[in-house]
Structures are given as C-alpha cells and as structure tokens.
Amino acid sequence: MDDLDKKLVTLLRHNGRRSISDLALETETSRATVRARIERLEQSGAIIGYTVILRADAVEEAVRGIMMIEIEGHVTDRVIRALGGFPEISEIHSTNGRWDLIVELSASTLGDFDSVLRRIRLVPGITGSETSLLLSTARSTKARL
Predict the structure, then answer these.
(1) DSSP state of 30
(2) Closest of 118, 113, 126, 129 to residue 82, by C-alpha
(3) Closest to 103 (Cα-Cα) out of 32, 123, 21, 73
C-alpha cells in the first residue's frame, strides 16, 4: 500500500459512501485513478467490505474500561456466549497468558459500570478478573460522530 492507497483508506474509513469524485478532489488525482485503486484494494483483500455505523455504536459512553477475565476449565465458548448478551460489552478478545479473555465495556455512570462488573463476575465459569478504566484514547480507527 502506497501513500495514495493509505489516504484513500483513511478517507473511506471516515465515510465509506464518499463519491469517487470527492475522493479524487481530496487526493488530487483523477477519478479513474481513484476507481482503479479502490478496485485493486478490494480485489487484493485489503478492503473486505463497507458497513453502516449506528449512532449507538459510534457515541462513546462516559465510563469505559477493559476487563481481563480468567475462566475455569473448558467453558470459554459458554462464557463468550454469555458475555455476548451484555449490551455494555463492545468487544470480546481471546488471549494467551494469565488472562483468557479481555473485554471492552462501557456505561453511562460509574454506578452503572460497577453494576455491569458485578453481573459479569456472576457468569458461571469466570473465576477471576481485573478491570482498568480507560481515561483517554490517544488513537483509534473506530468511527466517531
């Protein structure tokens, strides 16, 4: 990926419906060049799709955190399914090392956040956890409104 490809990807991350003409103006290249580059990025698998971002997914809650979770035995899939039912959890990652899962979660208030933590700790199979609040985000590729 060269600089033009990177710029196109950045522009499309912010608005995947942006027209070829707008992208050409922004990158100071021809529409044919932009179209060819985007087609090449799609065919190579660098761009695998476009999506709709709902306001609820893009607006951050006031309190955000990362929770590291330890799971007993071989119930990871069951725990992941249970955690998938929590609307406060935006992402679930499996990992290696001391912790089995890392979840990203958010809530409107510290009280709500505490309540979610307590409910998560009651999920059968979870034997330990450690939570860190996210104070600020220096860089993110997630959409923002």
Answers:
(1) -
(2) 126
(3) 123
